[in-house]
Design goal:
The complex is a heterodimer. Chain A contains 3 helices and no strands. Chain A starts with a helix and ends in a 13-residue tail after the last helix. In chain A, 76% of the residues lie in helices and 0% in strands. The mean pLDDT of chain A is 87. Chain A has one domain: Helix Hairpins. Chain B is mainly α. Classes of the chains: A mainly alpha, B mainly alpha.
Chain lengths: 111, 167
């Protein structure tokens, strides 16, 4: 499978996430599109880690080159989980105050 | 066409279709369910790339924990299609055009990159995705980031409780 296919797939997923953030006004769906973009980046990291590992395996049968990218993906997942918990708490607080999840309410932070 | 190629195309089509459905669904609960389908497709891609541990973690953390959190919040707010605020159609069109331009520029960039031409992803080889090797690397070379992420989790938990508490 050429690496370009993976790059195109991840670019398409990332662009769909961007379009979702730009076109939807529901704060929860905007948040879900951000998760989609994070996952597109994760998939690209894993694909490149695989490519580098395959190239290194040709010289050394037990090479561990490329494992850093997978650990990077692991840390991205950790940070995404923390981000989701805080972000959803903020959305719940906003819903409690204005009884809506329309992100246009967020342009008046005072009051 | 070999079985891995068939699986690659199948998972790609599933991921892209589900991602589009996440954006266009009117009901937020349907969006969450389509996003879970995207995560399953991406986990399938991880398995094809021999990243078995990441595939399982992706399913447990994203499809299992994060999306359940989303579902809880949506059901707590009792959102449905009729309460969804609608954006101006021109703004929607502008968003789609902006995203399409972004995609077009990056795809043309990748098409012109000759460095990428002879690089192929071979599936079914390599052992870096196994939990044994990942664990060795995580607890030898990446101990400090690992501990820092635990502090990050603790602060995120405290922050979520403080924000969510009725002020």
């Amino acid at each position: 499978m050429p690496i370009q296919y993976y790059i195109y797939l991840c670019l398409a997923l990332f662009s769909i996430g961007i379009v979702g953030v730009l076109t939807r006004r529901n704060a929860i769906i905007v948040f879900m599109c951000i998760e989609l973009m994070l996952n597109a980046v994760n998939l690209l990291l894993v694909a490149f880690s695989k490519v580098h590992n395959t190239a290194a395996l040709a010289g050394d049968k037990t090479s561990m080159i490329g494992i850093e990218a997978q650990l990077f993906v692991f840390f991205i997942m950790v940070v995404a989980a923390a981000e989701v918990s805080v972000g959803l708490a903020i959305i719940v607080m906003m819903y409690r105050n204005v009884h809506s999840v329309d992100i246009n309410f967020l342009n008046r932070l005072k009051n | 066409m070999s079985i891995t190629q068939f699986l690659f195309y199948f998972l790609t089509v599933l991921a892209l279709f589900s991602a589009v459905m996440v954006v266009v669904s009117k009901n937020p609960v349907h969006s969450v369910l389509w996003l879970i389908a995207v995560f399953f497709a991406i986990s399938g891609h991880y398995i094809l790339l021999n990243a078995q541990f990441l595939a399982i973690v992706n399913l447990i953390v994203y499809a299992g924990a994060i999306m359940v959190l989303f579902l809880f919040v949506i059901m707590l707010m009792n959102l449905n299609a009729s309460t969804e605020p609608q954006k101006n159609n021109w703004l929607k069109l502008a968003g789609v055009i902006a995203g399409g331009c972004f995609l077009m520029v990056l795809v043309s960039l990748v098409k012109q990159a000759n460095e990428l031409n002879n690089i192929a992803v071979t599936m079914g080889t390599g052992e870096i995705g196994l939990i044994k090797n990942l664990g060795k690397a995580l607890f030898n070379d990446f101990v400090v980031p690992f501990e820092i992420s635990s502090v990050l989790f603790l602060s995120a938990m405290v922050g979520a409780v403080v924000i969510g508490k009725k002020a």
